[in-house]
Amino acid sequence: PLIRNKKVRVLAVLNFFLTLIVMLLFLTIILLFGIVVYVKRQAALAVPKHMPCLFEWGEWSECSSTCRRSTKNDPPMMRRHITRIFNATGGIYAPCPVGLKVGYIQHAPCNVQICPKKLSRFNWTECFYRIPHIGKRSGCYKVRRLEPIDQLITIDSTSLYKECKKKDCPEFMP
């Protein structure tokens, strides 16, 4: 043996193993540091430096009505709200608008067609001569006054015209 003293030999062996452990710890720390740097670099590459303001909408709600009551009324509406916002990054794109926040509600018209109307709900016109050049003697009739709007008419009655009583016939047609 090179080292004759038993205590020195034990200390030399212990020193050797401790040096190996320290070197392994040092290499492990360097390896972990390299992994952290690599992951951060990959994350930086995954997120673009310049990104516009983006937001995600939720699903549209049910329409508030199946049809529109009249052309004078506002149409039924459906709505949705913003569920997530991704603010603009970098200096190329404008920032998100002021007031834009999660929960912001957007409204849109739906079922804009006018509700169907039953034929029996339409009023009658004034009386007309059946044969105009004969006049009141030919008899009179009236017809349903259909409005010139884009509306579905449900046929619940077969009476599109009806006879007028003689007393309701005008003396002359204007």
Summarize the structure.
Keywords: Membrane, Transmembrane, Transmembrane helix. The protein has one helix at 6-46; strands at residues 54-57, 77-86, 105-109, 114-118, 128-129, 140-143, 151-154, 161-163. The protein is α+β, with helices and mostly antiparallel strands.
Give a structural overview:
The chain contains 1 helix and 8 strands. The protein has 3 domains: 1-47; 49-112, no CATH class; 116-168, no CATH class. The mean pLDDT is 89. The protein has 174 residues and is α+β, with helices and mostly antiparallel strands.
Keywords:
174 residues; alpha+beta; 3-stranded antiparallel β-sheet; 8 strands; 24% helix; 21% strand; rod-shaped; Secreted protein; TSP1_rpt_sf; transmembrane
Total count of helical runs of at least 4 residues: 1
Structural class: alpha+beta
Main β-sheet description: 3 strands, antiparallel
The overall pLDDT, averaged over residues, is 89
Low-confidence stretches: none
CA gyration radius, whole angstroms: 44 Å
Q: Whole-Å distance between the termini? A: 141 Å
Number of strands: 8
What is the 3D form? rod-shaped
Strand order of the largest sheet: 1-2-3
Helix content: 10-25%
Task: Tell me the layout of helices and strands.
Layout: H1 6-46, E1 54-57, E2 77-86, E3 105-109, E4 114-118, E5 128-129, E6 140-143, E7 151-154, E8 161-163
Protein name: Secreted protein
Keywords: Membrane, Transmembrane, Transmembrane helix
InterPro entries: TSP1_rpt, TSP1_rpt_sf
